[in-house]
Specification:
This protein is an alpha+beta fold. The chain is built from 4 helices and 12 strands, in the order αβββββαββββααβββ. The protein folds into 2 domains: 102 residues, TATA-Binding Protein (2-Layer Sandwich), CATH 3.30.310; 39 residues, no CATH class. It is 24% helix and 37% strand.
């Protein structure tokens, strides 16, 4: 009789104990990455399990109020899943995927005129890191000034710039002649 009472008591304790086990989280379970939030960059949605790393983040504000720079994140998510969700999130915000490379370290390149975004992924043992770079587009007209700036800075060289060719003697005693192609023609 005592044995049956003890077994029944243990059974009741085990059943009540098991019912409270559902509140314990599984440390190996991957969190859902379908929910997202907007962090520093207003049109780059970040999956909810990813947390900002302030010590590795550098964001600046442009004259028009838009933000540029680097924001770093880390979270316990699968790298491949994270890259796929980011691809979907960026497309929803109007970003066009221009290229990607997948591996242990992956990268995705996006364009949303006049801005560019590069997202770098690094999978670790416990966490996946994600660096989001957002930059303003390059003004091609500025590139056409490179030869003039080069000549102005290197005034000690005996050189001249005229139109689309560059020729002159170097300070090493030899002569050199080359062609500079203008990008904005």
């Amino acid at each position: 009789m005592k044995v049956r009472t003890i077994v029944a008591g243990l059974a009741v304790l085990m059943l009540t104990g098991c019912s409270s086990m559902s509140s314990i989280s599984n440390p190996f379970e991957q969190p859902s990455i379908t929910e997202s939030y907007i962090s520093q960059f207003r049109d780059v949605p970040i999956p909810a399990p990813m947390s900002t790393i302030p010590s590795e983040t550098l964001v600046t504000v442009g004259p028009d109020g838009s933000k540029f720079g680097l924001e770093s994140f880390s979270g316990r998510v699968d790298g491949t899943s994270l890259a796929n969700v980011m691809m979907q999130n960026m497309a929803r915000q109007g970003w066009q995927l221009r290229g990607s490379s997948v591996g242990v370290r992956s990268v995705q390149l996006y364009e949303k005129s006049p801005h560019y975004a590069a997202i770098f992924y690094r999978e670790g043992v416990m966490n996946t890191s994600m660096d989001v770079w957002v930059v303003n587009g390059v003004n091609v007209d500025i590139l056409s000034l490179v030869p003039e700036v080069h000549n102005g800075v290197n005034g000690g060289y005996s050189s001249s710039y005229s139109g689309s060719d560059y020729s002159g003697a170097s300070s090493y005693g030899g002569t050199s002649s080359g062609q500079v192609t203008r990008l904005s023609e």
